[in-house]
Amino acid sequence: MNQFKNVALAGGGSIGVAFALQFARAGKSVRIFEQSPERCALIPGEIDARLKMLSAAGLLEGEPEVVAARIEVTPELQSAVANCDLVVECVPEVLDIKRELFAQLERHVAPEVPLCSASSALPASSFCSELATRQRCLIAHPGNPPYLIPIVELVPAPFTDAAVVQRCSAYFQQVGMSPIVVQREVEGFVFNRLQGALLREAYCLVRDGVASVEDVDKVVRNGLGLRWSVIGPFETADLNTRGGIAAHARKLGPAYERMGKERGQNDPWTDELVANVVAQRRAMLPLDQWEARVEWRDQQLMQLARMRKEHAANDASS
Ligand SMILES: NC(=O)c1ccc[n+]([C@@H]2O[C@H](COP(=O)([O-])OP(=O)(O)OC[C@H]3O[C@@H](n4cnc5c(N)ncnc54)[C@H](O)[C@@H]3O)[C@@H](O)[C@H]2O)c1
């Protein structure tokens, strides 16, 4: 049931092409439905160029031409979706376009096939509610480009069948992606909510003359982002403070609450909320393994440091 062979992508822009590469490099057959003749003509060249790039970086199994041969581009929806096991819609973020396309997909795609949308912000309930087979519809929001950023957020609408969500999760794992299931529809899902929180504060810091644009980016590039490529914000807090995240919340919670209030935000880390986070962290990492995990983090950061050093040396010698 969780094996699949054929993927149909509707829309061959940035995300459609990038998803095609990811599915094809994992051995799947891909058809891209693209309505613009200009885009149809450009897509094969884009695919070849990116596959060669991935191959040169040692990130492609098999020859680029072999992987490229798994991808077809067509201006006809019906031939794109024939015999497909999964559809991922990647058309522009415009409600009417998505609504119309999903109505067409419903007519032409066998009812057991999941219909995903790469939508960044529009939830599935805003354009699938009227469909007779709406239980197979959900969001599969990737990072850009999905052939280099593995996260994909699966966001079911209230009417989406949980079994379909699980099946899609297995499909995306099968092609080397890292799916999470967002528990309910919220604007921006998780990826863009986190990104938005940082970006909103970054704008405030520049507005208030605290830091330049370059320096904000530097703090992320040489600080937060470096760490976040290895561990997330919860694990960071957990590993940065002896006693773990419970101690972190005790020591730094009040300062973070003051910073939030300065921005008109009032979301205190209540005892109950902290207890929930602590319980989840301790289930993943008992405190007696804390030291070992801190060492693991440092090993990971050392690998990154080595890579950055080599990269800087290569840049200097070119
Ligand atoms: N670009 C990103 O960073 C990013 C990241 C994650 C998700 N997304 C989401 O993915 C979706 C696609 O974004 P994109 O950046 O690839 O857009 P894009 O504009 O690059 O590509 C959209 C493509 O869809 C085609 N198209 C338009 N209407 C169509 C139709 N009815 N049928 C078939 N093809 C049609 C267009 O010709 C175009 O080639 C959007 O919902 C977007 O929000 C984008």
Strand order of the largest sheet: 3-2-1-4-5-6-7-8
CATH level-four homologous superfamily name of the largest domain: NAD(P)-binding Rossmann-like Domain
- CATH fold name of the largest domain, please? Rossmann fold
What would you call the shape?
A: globular
The number of domains is 2
CATH architecture assignment name of the largest domain: 3-Layer(aba) Sandwich
Quickly give the structural class: alpha/beta
Supply Rg.
22 Å
Number of helical regions: 12
Fraction in beta strands = 5-15%
Mean pLDDT: 96
The distinct ligands, each listed once, are: nicotinamide-adenine-dinucleotide
What are the secondary-structure elements, in order, as H or E?
A: EHEHHEHEHEEEHEHHHHHH
Based on DSSP secondary structure assignment, what is the total number of beta strands?
8
Parts with pLDDT < 50 across at least 5 consecutive residues: none
For the record, give the distance between the C-alpha atoms at the N and C termini, rounded to a whole number. 50 Å
- The CATH class of the largest domain is identified as Alpha Beta
Q: Helix amount, in percent?
A: 40-55%
| Biggest β-sheet strands, sense, barrel | 8 strands, mixed
